[in-house]
Amino acid sequence: xxxxxxxxxxxxxxxxxxxxxxxxxxxxxxxxxxxxxxxxxxxxxxxxxxxxxxxxxxxxxxxxxxxxxxxxxxxxxxxxxxxxxxxxxxxxxxxxxxxxxxxxxxxxxxxxxxxxxxxxxxxxxxxxxxxxxxxxxxxxxxxxxxxxxxxxxxxxxxxxxxxxxxxxxxxxxxxxxxxxxxxxxxxxxxxxxxxxxxxxxxxxxxxxxxxxxxxxxxxxxxxxxxxxxxxxxxxxxxxxxxxxxxxxxxxxxxxxxxxxxxxxxxxxxxxxxxxxxxxxxxxxxxxxxxxxxxxxxxxxxxxxxxxxxxxxxxxxxxxxxxxxxxxxxxxxxxxxxxxxxxxxxxxxxxxxxxxxxxxxxxxxxxxxxxxxxxxxxxxxxxxxxxxxxxxxxxxxxxx
Length: 399
Prior knowledge:
Radius of gyration: 22 Å
Order of helices and strands: HEHEHHEHEHHEHEHEEEEEEEEEE
Oligomer: single chain
GO molecular function, one term: hydrolase activity, acting on glycosyl bonds
Helix content: 25-40%
Organism: Microcaecilia unicolor
Number of helices: 9
Pfam families: Glyco_hydro_79n (PF03662)
Number of strands: 16
CATH architecture of the domain at 263-396: Sandwich
Structural class: alpha/beta
Family: Belongs to the glycosyl hydrolase 79 family.
CATH class of the domain at 263-396: Mainly Beta
Protein name: Inactive heparanase-2-like
Largest sheet: 8 strands, antiparallel
């Protein structure tokens, strides 16, 4: 879950939050308030110990984070916190966690910085010098576009999609300087900042940026991507005010069910230049490949999942070769449903609208089986998942 700032957070609210997370089979990462500062600008942790002791008494399994976008603290409360001081604050928090048996080995994440501009990179550098070994993963945030002025075509600009790759590289350079191999999380991501854009961030069009984020992050070694948000915050959410799934929810569900964590390399015949990570067959046709999720009982180990983004205004054809040529392929093609086109808040899977069966039951996500050797035809401005069955790929047989 994303970090928030709380002025007053009573015990009963923590109970409700934890019970919701626990019942949903999720894990809670609780963001502590880093804006409470003493006159010497050190972190005021006076009320944190009571929170830790209370949650420990309930045996709540919680991970922790301190603050949110520390590069913006001057705008929030007129006080700047540099990376060195923030690192000391994290060391203080780690010491507090270790003093409580329940949380002596709890995970701690941070510093949850914003987009890596020059001042943010300097903050991260100072933090890593002091506390790089204190946290279990480095967290940062990425938003593609200003939600106050975004237009539908902005969500399909390849230049915009590629900004993530450059920013990942900047973060990795700093982290690997101090703690090579340290896990890096994209700790907060949305299509647009300023709470997103109504009738854009919550529509089919936003899926191009979202799926590209997942593919590019996996390709470049980001361990975890946290979506901002699930419900009720602006227009980057996954479900609407009535808890009806929006297009990015269905996209996320397909991704979780079909895509495993192991990333595969792709060779494309006829490609004239070596692609940067996440850029395959020109900029407007992006193909990512993973081992199929081991948790999906419908596919045996060794199967491969491709997911494809076609930003062209014409259909594109892909022919599988080699050992993939004679295999059955299951197609999961997501397209907008309704007259709104790309700005639709409903989607269809292989031509069938996706809607909840009832308040608690998801519909069956049925694939369309393509005969062996058939060319994959990707319609214009669409997203598709393709599971190549029974390939028995060596890289995908084992975890």
